[in-house]
User: Fold this.
Amino acid sequence: MKKKIGTVWLGGCSGCHMSLLDIDERILDVAALADIVKSPVVDSKEFPDVDVAIVEGAIITDQHLTEVRHIRAHSKILIALGNCAVTANVPAYRNRVTKEEALKCAYVDASSNDSAGQMPDSPELGKLLDRVRPLHEAVKVDYYIPGCPPSADLIFYVLSELLNGRTPNLDKEKLKYG
Amino acid sequence: MNASFTITIDNQSVEATPGESLLEVCRKANIPLPVMCDFKGLSPVGACRLCLVEIEGVPKLLPACTTLVAPNQAVHTQSDKLRKYRRMIIELIFSERNHICAICVANNNCELQKMAYELGMDHVRFPYLTPVCEVDASHEKYVMDHNRCILCTRCVRVCSEIEGAMTRDVMGRGFDARIITEFKQPWGDSTGCTSCGKCVQVCPTGALTPNDAAQGRLKKNPELVALLIEKREAKP
Assistant:
């Protein structure tokens, strides 16, 4: 029985997904063992039941929080992919100011706005949470792959270990934060 | 000259001289210990707590850098308990300031980053405090970024003990503690600083850097300062 993989990006830059694509032809080895049933490159709506969920990005908005909780409830293994998911990384820089100040800084005060900037208020947009948080502050995370972005080799190593029923071991030679 | 004696470290007999620290004895015996605040030739302060060891008969863990050898000491440098505490300590250091490796000039050239790899830190279990920290770029050659400072005080010690300028100190306590220049003035306004750059070379992170270093391009040469200290101590 083939395993199911789902990937998602929350508050991140998608760089970790670019790195995931950089596994190049090894995607065929992954495809032999698993189907990628949900991903930014797969068209589907709600995050389905999966064996392995790969989550990129920090929790920035209420939508991210709802989504990561949903993903946790529908996945056997949850991987925090990349520094934003693991540490909250660059998005967490706004934790030193209030969310109102952060929004004002970006949408109103930024010089590129020519003093005509307005706060976006579409109901489609997620609402900023008070603090940007790494995934493990909201849900249980099974494996952490730090890196900005993590290398394709490391992502493939973790995936192939998990899909072959082994436990990936991120020892000191494999760890990289920058 | 005091007579040397033998102590036991990790069940191996090691020769020690009165007045030596456990860290010095471990180094001579090639027994590795994680350290961040220690710098050979500067006085030990026990600030980072990473070199904690277990000593039989002593109920608490003690830092090897500030604990002196004593006859019949039985020391353990590796145990599950020590590994647990060292991992906790490195995580607390990361949670206390804004150590964002991806945008740091010291990325891939950072003793703190290397130590975290060494201790197997794949994530930080404590909430990040994300304090508001200043960046002092007033000096003509160097920058002090408090976001990356771990308060090891190597800069304070090298400035007073080796350069003799004594322009650096620590102000405030705990969460609010900051390295300051003179009486907390902009570094560029300091009249005591000789701009020798020793503090920059011994800083283990991206807290003190030359102001022309781009992200991930920082090169430091702490060995040069270590050599200088050695030469000064050598008797002609």
